[in-house]
Amino acid sequence: MSIEEVNVNKEMPALSKKNVDGIILVLSCQKHKNTRLKEFSLSKTSYNNWEVIYVIGDLFLKENYILEGNLLYLRCEDSYLHLLKKLVIAIKCVKEIFNIKEGILRCGDDLIINENNLIKFIKSKKFDYWGQSCFKKGYKCVDKNSLKNLKNDPFMTFYYNKHKEDFLNPHHGMLNMNVTTLSKYTYRPNIYGAAGVIFYLSNKACDIIVRHMENINFNILSYDKFTKSYPYTIEDCGISFVMYYNDIEYTDGQFFYDTPHDNTIAKHTNKYK
């Protein structure tokens, strides 16, 4: 069963909302629950009224989500391919659970966080879409038509060639897929923004990405008629596309991860890949 067959817009259970300044959202999966997530370096569940929420997908969850302490289970595919979908559904859920003043800091589960620098970031002025590019420079989408410049990106086919066992995991919702099938969805806009390791989205940016994905029923294999491509199969590329398509600029900051900057927030370990 694929989550595309489930009505993700079903009304969520009524909850008393907690007021927070922001959410530190750590995306993980069942595969890494007892490795990466267990070893994750944050020592607290809240920093300066920023709540830490860990996210795992469970395709067969009866409810849309279950929050157990700081662990959020989503009714969603738990696969690498569906990471963008997991992120956006997680954003949708935490915005229903919390009154969020600022936005969300999206983190991978294989980071070593410098907690002092994390607090500095939390206290700083922020931008709508803010992160660190792999290319060590900023990027501005001056004209939406530039989104029509495409590239054939085999990233996902390379990944699944090395992890074919993932197709057989029922929680991944990919039982009817294979590498050949994925190869049909490799053309995407030739753009970049924040690397998926760690980046920030304001409330405004969060509302835009949720609304955009709702409009395509959270289908990461959706064909985009404007660009004539498949922008959603790689999470950080999909985020960049949605932001640029909706006139949200990317702000580059070379201090989010793996830099000698005094304020670097995290080290990317990339363990247990």
Account of the protein in words:
The protein is of the alpha/beta class and 273 residues long. It has a single domain, classed as Spore Coat Polysaccharide Biosynthesis Protein SpsA, Chain A. The protein is 22% helix and 23% strand. The chain has helices spanning 83-97, 115-123, 155-162, 179-182, 203-215, 235-245; strands spanning 18-27, 46-47, 50-57, 65-68, 71-74, 98-108, 111-113, 129-131, 150-152, 187-189, 198-202, 250-252, 266-268. The strands form three sheets. Strands 1, 2, 3, 4, 5, 6, 8, 11 and 12 form a nine-stranded mixed β-sheet that branches. Helix 1 (83-97) crosses helix 5 (203-215) and helix 1 packs across helix 6. Residues 1-14 have low confidence and may be disordered.
Give a concise summary.
The chain is of the alpha/beta class. The protein is 22% helix and 23% strand.
Q: Main attributes?
A:
6 helices, Spore Coat Polysaccharide Biosynthesis Protein SpsA, Chain A, two-stranded antiparallel sheet, disordered N terminus, 9-stranded mixed β-sheet, alpha/beta, globular, 273 residues
Tertiary shape: globular
Share of helical residues:
10-25%
Instruction: Please state the CA-atom Rg, rounded to the nearest Å.
Output: 18 Å
Number of spatially distinct domains: 1
Distance between the termini: 26 Å
Number of DSSP helices?
A: 6
Portion in beta strands: 15-25%
* Poorly predicted runs: 1-14
Number of strands: 13
What's the architecture, going by CATH?
Alpha-Beta Complex
User: What would CATH call the class?
Assistant: Alpha Beta
Strand and helix order:
EEEEEHEEHEEHHEEHHEE
Tell me the major beta sheet. 9 strands, mixed
Kindly name the structural category. Answer: alpha/beta
In CATH terms, what is the fold-level topology? Spore Coat Polysaccharide Biosynthesis Protein SpsA, Chain A
Provide the residue-averaged pLDDT: 91
